[in-house]
Design goal:
Blueprint: H1 13-58, E1 63-69, E2 72-77, H2 84-104
Antiparallel strand pairs: 1-2
Length: 105
């Protein structure tokens, strides 16, 4: 009787390099994806604040500047509107832009 003993399979150098390549590629993809998502989030916050600012300017109010923070922003409007309906329109303009962006995403 002949008994053949096969050694356990071992990974050769090419397979090890291929595994390392796949891991590095996945890591690079995650980094690029995170970078794009951060930029997209910042653009969405800017669009939200622009919604407030553009409606305010459409009603004749002066918008001094828009300040963006890491998780939000502020549209600095010089004076308040005399009519509550205009204030409501300005207040709802930002969330409306955010909902439009969410609908198209």
């Amino acid at each position: 009787m002949v008994l053949f003993i096969r050694p356990a399979p071992r990974e050769d150098c090419v397979e090890l390099r291929l595994k390392a390549y796949r891991q590095n590629t996945a890591s690079l993809f995650r980094h690029i994806s995170a970078w794009i998502q951060r930029r997209f989030f910042f653009v969405c916050v800017l669009a939200h604040e622009l919604g407030h600012a553009l409606v305010a300017r459409a009603h004749g109010l002066t918008v001094r500047d828009i300040t963006l923070f890491i998780f939000g922003g502020v549209a600095s409007i010089e004076e308040e509107s005399k009519r509550p309906g205009v204030e409501l329109q300005i207040a709802l303009a930002g969330p409306a832009v955010s909902m439009l962006l969410a609908a198209f995403a």
